[in-house]
Structure to design on (181 residues):
């Protein structure tokens, strides 16, 4: 009987010099290297490409709260415990309450704009982009335009990457666990 290979979170010594430099930057900026980012660091190309893409996805179109709302909805759609925990914590740092984060994940926000944003994000993630015209119309009716739609797909794609990495690796969650819905 074969035993399954368990993916371990690498130490700085187990990754190349490029990933080590990124770990140092993350440690300076965040005070830690999140386990998921460290695991992505097995590939310095993936880590540097992801961080550049993720840090820029949605900027100029969405504010930090909207970006976190998108990430919470997508992480719920992809059932990623790591990203639900991380983005609940980051959402709180951006002004959401615990209750707000739960409403964003369950697509029941009292804010019509955030509800439209989380609903379309969840649908894009769960239906591989094949969403109904009705969902798109609700999004556009909240004042978003074609640029926002493309920027939304960028944010959905960035968080989907981390959702998938966690799904494949199941590394330990190093953020407070998000409440189950």
């Amino acid at each position: 009987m074969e035993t399954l290979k368990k993916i371990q979170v690498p130490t700085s010594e187990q990754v190349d010099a490029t990933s080590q430099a990124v770990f140092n930057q993350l440690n300076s900026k965040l005070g830690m290297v999140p386990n998921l980012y460290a695991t992505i660091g097995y590939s310095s190309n993936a880590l540097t490409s992801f961080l550049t893409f993720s840090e820029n996805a949605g900027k100029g179109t969405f504010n930090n709260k909207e970006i976190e709302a998108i990430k919470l909805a997508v992480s719920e759609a992809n059932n990623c415990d790591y990203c639900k925990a991380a983005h609940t914590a980051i959402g709180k740092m951006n002004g959401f309450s615990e209750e707000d984060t739960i409403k964003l994940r369950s697509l029941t926000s009292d804010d019509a704009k955030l509800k439209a944003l989380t609903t379309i994000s969840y649908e894009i993630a769960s239906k591989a982009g094949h969403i109904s015209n009705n969902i798109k119309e609700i999004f556009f009716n909240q004042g978003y335009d074609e640029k926002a739609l493309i920027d939304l797909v960028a944010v959905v794609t960035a968080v989907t990457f981390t959702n998938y990495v966690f799904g494949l690796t199941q590394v330990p969650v190093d953020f407070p666990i998000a409440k189950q819905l």
User: Anything to note?
Assistant: The mean pLDDT is 97. The chain is about 65% helix and 0% strand.
